[in-house]
Each structure stands twice: as structure tokens, then as C-alpha cells.
Amino acid sequence: MENISHQTVVSQPAGKKNHPLLSFKIGSLPLPIYLILAVIIFGAAVWGKLPADMIGGIAVMMIMGMLLGDIGLKVPILKDIGGPAILSIFVPSFMVFYNLLNPAAIKAITAFTKNANFLYFYISCLVVGSILGMVRKVLIQGFLRMFVPLIIGTFVAVAAGVAVGTVMGIGTYKSFFYVVIPILSGGVGEGILPLSVAYSEILDQSPNNFIAMLVPAAMLGNVFAIMAAGSLKKIGERKPEWTGNGTLVKSGDDIELKNLQSEHQTVDLQLMGAGLIMACSFYIFGLVLNLVIPIPAPIIMILSAAIVKALGIMPSQIEQGAFQLYKFVSGNLTWALLVGVGVLYTPWNQVVESITPAYVLTVLATVIGMISSGFFVGKLMNMYPVESACVTCCHSGLGGTGDVAILSSCGRMELMPFSQISTRIGGACTVVAAAIIMKMIS
Questions:
Q1: Residues 389, 378: contact at Cβ < 8 Å?
Q2: Angle (nearest 5°) at CA 369 between 363 and 372
Q3: What letters, b where the CB count within 10 A reaches 16 and e where it falls short, cover 379-388?
Q4: 249 three-class SS
Q5: pTM confidence score
Q6: 390 neighbors 233 (Cβ within 8 angstroms)
């Protein structure tokens, strides 16, 4: 059998130049090709030839997601506040509400996202691959290092958000489960979607009853977190003694951890196949263990992947395959999935109704509580307070997209390993705790 584990690179023939139109891309496609495919796909929808299955669904969702994600990445200001995710969710939601999306396209999206269970597949690939792809030493030491400011920040954020929400008339229960928790859950793919699944299983309702209530809080929290990160950068410039300019701990050993990040590895297609079955198996393991442990399967999946990674019992090649699958899925299917989320699970009218002064203040209080705790607790723990606050700030951001936007805003991309701890592990723990508490009081 021919070895297909290496990545083939096709070079441009010498002296041959692409047409200027081919250099302008929508997502990964040159503009002319994108336009041709868009005409074919939406023409098929208009003429009743778009199949209501995986082929039709993924075609519509990817062609829309490429455009919306690309716009979100390029529009000034919007690109710095999670623009791709915002547009990919809310534009389709708007189109459905005002009947601007063809019924055949909606049918195809429904078949692929809901009936074919693409939502759960995406969650499994994203969560398992991202956790197994982390450097084990970073996972263990970073978690221990950030544990105190992260946990204290979470409690303060919850207390502040719930208090403001209660005073402003939102109510304690709703403030906690539907405003504060989604902000701290770790993003859309890693947090909101598993959280909505957990809520739906506990309350015996469809996930679409919850996503529309959870997404606005996460989006708005991300905006405030990015603004706060920019303020932290200014604080560091005015108070140089409060910042390590990207170094987290004053002892300096965090530089060693930063240098241990995974180096570029050649894409191995066979290992990606192993990563695929691994992602599916972790989720199935969650379903099986759910028979004896009253915790939703997606949450068990998150915890079991983190435990396996921390124990170092998974072969490195399998971890590599799972991580490469994660990179493929997150890099190519995220905006497509979010289009499905916008069409099926984000009623436009409910989103608009949720943005009230009380709601905005509750979100703002949650983010401020998280960041201020990270600042002062980090200072007490021999950490640079600006960097500590930046890392805890990521706990209130929009997942991986939020991490990049937040650290870009404060000019400290060196903190990415620790922001991943804050976002992934902190988000997973938040989701687990919320699910357990809801289960106890339901």
C-alpha cells in the first residue's frame, strides 16, 4: 500500500502567475471558484435539486460559513470581537426570521445538523482533539499555576453576575444558568453547545430551547473581555512593575513551558483516522458511563479526555492524530456549524429581546469580577498581575477565537498556552459544575 502519511506539496510552475482574481479568496477558495459554487448550490436550492442530506447540508453551510467567516475576519473592529462567529450565527438567524433563506436550504441544513447529528460529531472532534493536543507538562503545571486565581475569579464572577442580575430583575436562577455560566463556559463549540446538550438532557427538552438563550451572553462577554484586555495593556504601559511583558510568573520558568509547545508536525492522514475513531469513542464512553454516573455524556467526555492526557497513557501518535483532526474540523467546519446553529437554534427575535440594560450590566459585572480577581490574586501569588488578569480574562472569552482576540488586544500572545488552560479546563469545569448543580435542584 502506498504510504499516504506525508503531506504532498504542489508548487507553482516557475514563471506562471495566478490571475489577480484567483489571488482574492473567500475562505480557502479563489473568488471565481467560490462564486461558481455558490451559484450552483443556491441554484439547486431554488430549482428543488438540493438534497436534504449530508451532501446538501454541508454544501450550503460551508458556502455560507466561508463568506460570513471571511467577512468577520476582515471588517475592522468586528474582526477584533469575534466577528466570524458573530456573523456566522446571527446573519443566518436574521435571514430565517425574515424569510430570506430558501426553504430547501433550511431543510438541507436541518437534515445534516440535526438529523445526522453533526452537532455531536463536531463537539467530540473539537473537545477530544484539542485536549489531547496540549503539551502534557503545560496542562499539568499550567493548571496548577492558574488554579487559585482561576477558581477564585470564577467564584467572584459568578457572585458579581448573579448579584447584579438579581438586583436588576433577571432573577437568580436565570442569571446563573443562562447569563453567567455561558460567559465562563469556554466558547461556543467547547462550552455553549455541550452546555445546551447538558441542560436539554437534565430538563428533558431540545437543545434548541437553550442555545438562543446562551449564545448572546457568550458573545457579549467576549466583547467586554477584549475591551478589558486592551485596558490591561494600557495599565502595563503605565505601571511597568505590574507586567512581565508576556511572562506570567516572576520566577521565569514559564518560558520553559512556552518553549515546549508542539512543533509543526507533518499531517498524517492515517493518524487522523485514528483520531476520528478516538473522538467518537470518547463520546460513546460518556454515553456508557452515563448509565451509572448522573453526568451528561458530553461532560464525561471532556473530563475523561483531560484525565487521560494528564496521566500520559495515550500513545503520542494517537494524540497527534486526534489533534490534527481537531485542527481540520475547527479550521474547515466551525463557521459551517455556526451557520447551522444560527438557522436552527438561534431565533432572532429571542436574541434581540435578550439584549436589555439589565442583561448588559449582568454580563459586564461577570467579566469585571473575573478579571479583577485574576489581577489581585495573581499579584499575591508572585505572578505579574497584568499577565494573570489577561489569562483569567480568557475564561470569559469566546473559546479559542476569544483567546486570540483577547491576547491580541493586550499584545501578549505568549500567554496562549495558559489562556488555553483557562479557556478549556476552566470552561469544562464550569460546564460540569453547572450541570451538576442543575441536576441537583431540578
A1: yes
A2: 135
A3: bebebbbbbb
A4: strand
A5: 0.70
A6: no
What are the cell numbers at 321?
492524530
Half-sphere exposure of 329 (CA within 13 A, CB side): 27
Tell me the β-bridge partners of 249: 383
Residue-wise pLDDT tens digits, 36-57: 999 999 999 999 999 999 999 9
Q: How confident is the model at residue 234 (pLDDT cuts 50, 70, 90)?
A: confident
Cell of 188: 461556543
Q: What are the start-end ranges of the H helices in 269-356? A: 269-289, 297-311, 316-345, 348-354
d(CA 343, CA 64): 11
Element (H, E) at 74: helix 54-74
Give residue-wise pLDDT tens across range 160-217.
999 999 999 999 999 999 999 999 988 776 788 888 888 888 888 877 778 878 888 8
For residue 25, give the 3-state DSSP assignment.
Answer: strand
Report the first-to-last Cα separation within the chain, whole angstroms: 56
Residue 7's pLDDT band (boundaries 50, 70, 90)? very low
Phi/psi class of residue 348: alpha, beta or left (left: φ > 0; alpha: ψ in -120 to 50)? Answer: alpha
Give the three cell numbers for residue 59.
454544501
- Which grid cell is 158? 459568578
State the DSSP H helix or E strand holding residue 155, giving kind and residue range, or none if neither.
helix 136-167
Question: Could you tell me the residue ranges of all domains in the chain?
Answer: 23-115, 118-441
List the grid coordinates of 149: 486565581
